[in-house]
Amino acid sequence: MDRNPDVLGWRRKFGVLGPSTNTIVQPEMDAMRPRGVTNHYSRIYTPNAQAISNESFMAGTLQISAGVLDAVRSVMTCEPDWLVMGMSAITFYGGAKGADEFAARIRAESGVGVSTGSLSTVAALRAIGGIRRVAFLSPYYPVANAEVRRFLEESGYTVVRDLCLQCPTWTAIAQVPATTLRAKLRALDGDDVDALIQVGTNLCMASLADEAERWLGKPVLAINTATYWHALRENGIDDRIAGFGRLLLDH
Predict the structure, then answer these.
(1) Cα distance between residue 55 and residue 49, in whole Å
(2) What is the fold of 12-119+225-250?
(3) Which region holds residue 129: left if phi is over 0, alpha if psi is between -120 and 50, else beta?
(4) Cβ of 146: how many Cβ atoms within 10 Å?
(5) Of 30, 65, 124, 136, which sits with the fewest C-beta atoms within 10 Å of its C-beta?
(6) What is the pLDDT of residue 209?
(7) Cα 40 to the chain's mean position, in Å?
């Protein structure tokens, strides 16, 4: 790879992979981008499927999974230094072993490192420290929440509660208003929870998580923030970025 620095991405170029229906990852991660880092979005072709049951939701996410490597090959033509996975559900499937295997497939195809939602979330929880009991919110159906729960529990955390919004289409996820998300976070919270987690990259949560930490008084991890934080820190970029919660500001 040419080691002359890119004029705008002189610190790092990130290839960001996300479903073609996703409209939240790109603007949220661009908002977190420090000077000298550039994001290069590669869309995983995804029909805007209707998810009306556990079965249809899983079928839709597995169709996205099947297109991931094509998106990797596409974005690698701009020679990024690192990949950032902007689709979280499939990164949790198969528990801790499945999460590791998914990341390994991306690394093998690309030849560079990758930040995935599942592994980045655990890295963020460990960086914050003192967290054992969590609750999480998703736009998924129960079958996918069960996979997230399995991964978190196999990673050493107790899942106290979880909620799934059962959004009817992929684009409908981006239409969930902040008022709904605030109410769901409050419903998840309790004295028995050390931290709240949001999964599902097309939910608009990065800035709201920062706000929620102030009125809940505990960590609130948005999946896009955790994944982008992981990519920055793994690449030696230690910039403290305000507006997205304590993770990017303090760790």
Answers:
(1) 12
(2) Rossmann fold (3.40.50)
(3) left
(4) 15
(5) 30
(6) 98
(7) 16
CATH topology identical between 12-119+225-250 and 128-222: yes
- Kindly list the averaged pLDDT for each block of 10 residues, start to end, along the chain of length 251: 83 97 97 98 86 75 84 97 96 96 96 98 98 97 96 98 95 97 98 98 98 97 98 98 97 97
By DSSP bridging, strand 195-198 and strand 12-19 are unpaired
Residue 242: what residue type? A
- pLDDT (0 to 100) of residue 92: 97
Pick the CATH number of 128-222 from 3.40.50.970, 3.40.50.12500, 3.30.1120.10, 3.30.70.920: 3.40.50.12500
CA distances from 106 to 22, 84, 85, 147 (A): 20, 10, 9, 20
Q: Which amino acid is at 224?
A: N
pLDDT at position 1, please? Answer: 46
Tell me the H-state helices in the chain: 25-32, 54-66, 68-75, 89-92, 95-110, 117-128, 142-154, 170-173, 178-188, 206-216, 223-234, 246-250
